[in-house]
Amino acid sequence: MMIVNALQKQGYPQQGVVIPLYGPCPPDLPERVITYAQANLLVVLVQNNTEATAMLQVALEKLAATEPRVKIMYNHNRGGVAGGFNRGIETAITEGVEWVTLLDQDSRLSAQDFGRLLEPWRTIANQRLLVGPMIWDGRRKKLHGIRHLEPQERYLQTRLLISSGTTFKVSDWTLLGPMEEWLIVDFVDHAWCFRAQERGFLLYHHPQVVLHQAFGQKHPHPLCHLLGMELYSPMRHFYSLRNLRWLLREHYVPPDLKIKEVLKMTLKPWLWLLCEPRKAENLQAIAQALNTRLPIRQLNP
């Protein structure tokens, strides 16, 4: 602890940013990482790809070798996105940061906004917090979950934050606990947020911090597009349906949200089969998701 305090007095980062890498990485990622490091943020890159794009991989490894505020580690997709975040958080904590912010590789958040996400800890006393930005959907050109602040409010309380942009205090990590790696990808943030609220955490959006991200691909079928659906692969359909089955059994998930997701997922598989191009693969994914044996209880209780 004395070593950590000494490093922080010398200007060592107090806030870490964890970015799992998966699939094709955006070409501007090294530039963004440099910007974050120059703003005195510790950047932990978690390589979750089995095969990385050679040029980008070289650029990231060179950056990590020359910039002490950038760390790169290899997770080999163990536990999917959830595992990538968990390994990155563990690394950031060992580096002695006080706060950790999670970030998807294709999310855009300014270096200054990372600091603004810490503001609720200065104004909300004696509470365990998870704080995230507002979300701008770059493909749909709209802000998610917007509502007007009441006169007495500075931040928007919510029941769900997406993982990207979510910030927490390291001293709360033991109680908060890791993300559920069995889920791999879909509903990971749902399970983490709902469990956190059961453990006494308050969740807030910071209304002056906006994260930019595009979700999925535009659905080619007019009806599905009108219903707000995105086009994902059959593998993602498998995870979303299988993981929802698991999530519905967890006692900490609010009943109204269970009903909402059940209604949506009752309709979606039919639309996958009727309106999407990879019908045979979608049918196989649905059958596998419905027949997969679920864990008896949480892997990370």
Order of helices and strands: HEHEHEHEHHEEEEHHEEHEHHH
Q: How many individual helices?
A: 12
Helical fraction: 40-55%
Secondary structure tally: strands: 11
- Strand arrangement, largest sheet? 3-2-1-4-8
Strand content: 15-25%
In short:
Helices cover 41% and strands 19% of the residues. The protein is an alpha/beta fold and 301 residues long. α2 links the parallel β1 and β2 (42-47).
Describe the structure.
With 301 residues, the protein is an alpha/beta fold. The chain has 2 domains: 10-213, Alpha-Beta Complex (Spore Coat Polysaccharide Biosynthesis Protein SpsA, Chain A), CATH 3.90.550.60; 217-291, no CATH class. Helices cover 41% and strands 19% of the residues. It has helices spanning 2-9, 29-38, 54-66, 80-94, 111-116, 120-123, 173-176, 188-198, 222-226, 234-247, 255-275, 279-291, and strands at residues 15-21, 42-47, 70-74, 99-102, 128-137, 142-144, 156-158, 167-169, 201-213, 217-218, 230-231. The strands form 3 sheets. Strands 3-2-1-4-8 form a 5-stranded mixed beta sheet, sandwiched between helices. A 4-stranded mixed beta sheet has the order 6-5-9-7, covered by helices on one side. α10 packs parallel to α12 (279-291) and α11 (255-275) runs antiparallel to α12 (279-291). The longest helix has 21 residues, at 255-275. The two termini are 28 Å apart.
